[in-house]
Specification:
By secondary structure, the protein is an alpha/beta fold. The protein contains five helices and nine strands. A hairpin with a 5-residue loop joins strand 8 and strand 9. The longest helix has 12 residues. The mean pLDDT is 95.
Length: 150
């Protein structure tokens, strides 16, 4: 059964390792606004466009009091390569067992070339300083994602 989160819901707690092997939890962002974006895979065209758009507008997010955190099933090592290659200023979580994605209801059935498989449903959650969901974007425009958020 897939969880369906709504604006106003309390954001599900999580703990997951980032690209440096450090444990990152939702409680680390208490009192801050957080853009938590789920994406399928490092270094694919859509995911790279999305990450680079967020990178290019990172200062705007910081000036408005937002932190950014990306989540995908890729390993810590793959995340570090992706960050280095594209000079990403924010952390990426290695959700290899997709526990975080499942908690947010974004691990689901996808289809490509007629084949069905399980994977990340590209979605972004904006979590306010009180830990509540203030925005959910399910139709992500990878090339202009910052405009959808700011």
């Amino acid at each position: 059964m897939t969880i369906k989160l709504n604006i106003g819901d309390k954001a599900p707690n999580f703990s997951c390792k980032n690209e440096k092997g450090e444990l990152v939890s939702l409680k680390d962002f208490k009192g801050k606004n957080l853009v938590l974006y789920f994406y399928p895979k490092d270094d694919t065209p859509g995911c790279t466009a999305e990450a680079c758009d967020l990178r290019d507008n990172y200062q705007s997010f910081l000036s408005k009091g937002f932190e950014i955190l990306g989540v995908s099933p890729d390993s810590e090592k793959k995340h570090q390569k992706f960050i280095d290659k594209h000079e990403l200023p924010f952390s990426l979580l290695a959700d290899e067992d997709h526990a975080v994605a499942e908690a947010y209801g974004v691990w689901g059935e996808k289809s490509m070339y007629g084949k069905k498989y399980m994977g990340i449903l590209r979605t972004t959650f904006v979590i306010d300083a009180k830990g509540k969901l203030s925005n959910i974007i399910e139709k992500v425009d990878t090339k202009a994602h910052s405009k959808q958020l700011i």
